[in-house]
């Protein structure tokens, strides 16, 4: 449903710009994935230091993602012959970093078979991204609607993760 609404409001070129940024972000996220959440779930006995280490590693990963996009935004924009991609890549890097900074205690809850916090965070991220994307598309009719919607969804989900399961 949301894609159909966005398809009516945005151009195919807008979707192409978003697809380029999303593809690069997916590759960078996959390449830097540390599986720390899985390690927390599988560890028999979890201490505060394990959680702090996972969060610190997630923060370092987030910084690497932002740094990569900050440094690569111009070369990538030149490679795609689209100067407008510089800002899009930079915002996409911040979005990727925000996604990675969710509360590691969410995974501890999952280990305890409490899936509601994780489900709420994941649902909220998608729902906020879609609602904001459609709202921004109605107002601005630009690819920025999806880019900013994704950023707002990631930031909201991250904040929600700390609200639902205190660190």
Structure report:
It is built from eight helices and no strands. The chain is globular and about 50 Å long.
* Count of beta strands: 0
The Cα radius of gyration reads 17 Å
Largest sheet geometry:
none
Order of helices and strands: HHHHHHHH
Q: How much helicity do the residues have?
A: over 70%
Overall outline:
globular
Protein structure class: mainly alpha
Chain-wise SSE layout:
Layout: H1 2-9, H2 12-32, H3 36-42, H4 48-79, H5 85-100, H6 105-111, H7 116-140, H8 144-164
Helix pairs in contact: 1-7, 2-5, 3-6, 4-5, 5-8, 7-8
Please describe the structure with a list of short key phrases separated by commas or semicolons.
167 residues, mainly alpha
Summarize, please.
This protein is mostly helical and 167 residues long.
């Amino acid at each position: 449903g949301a894609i159909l609404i966005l398809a009516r409001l945005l151009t195919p070129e807008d979707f192409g710009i978003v697809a380029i940024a999303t593809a690069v972000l997916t590759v960078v996220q996959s390449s830097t994935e540390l599986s720390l959440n899985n390690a927390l779930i599988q560890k028999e006995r979890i201490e505060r230091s394990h959680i702090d280490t996972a969060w610190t590693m997630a923060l370092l990963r987030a910084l690497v993602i932002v740094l990569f996009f900050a440094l690569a935004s111009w070369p990538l924009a030149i490679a795609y012959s689209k100067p407008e991609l510089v800002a899009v890549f930079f915002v996409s890097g911040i979005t990727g970093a925000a996604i990675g900074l969710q509360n590691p205690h969410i995974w501890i809850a999952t280990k305890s078979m409490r899936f509601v916090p994780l489900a709420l965070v994941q649902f909220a991220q998608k729902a906020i991204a879609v609602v904001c994307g459609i709202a921004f598309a109605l107002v601005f009719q630009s690819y920025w609607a999806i880019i900013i919607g994704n950023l707002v969804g990631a930031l909201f989900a991250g904040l929600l993760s700390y609200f639902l399961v205190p660190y």
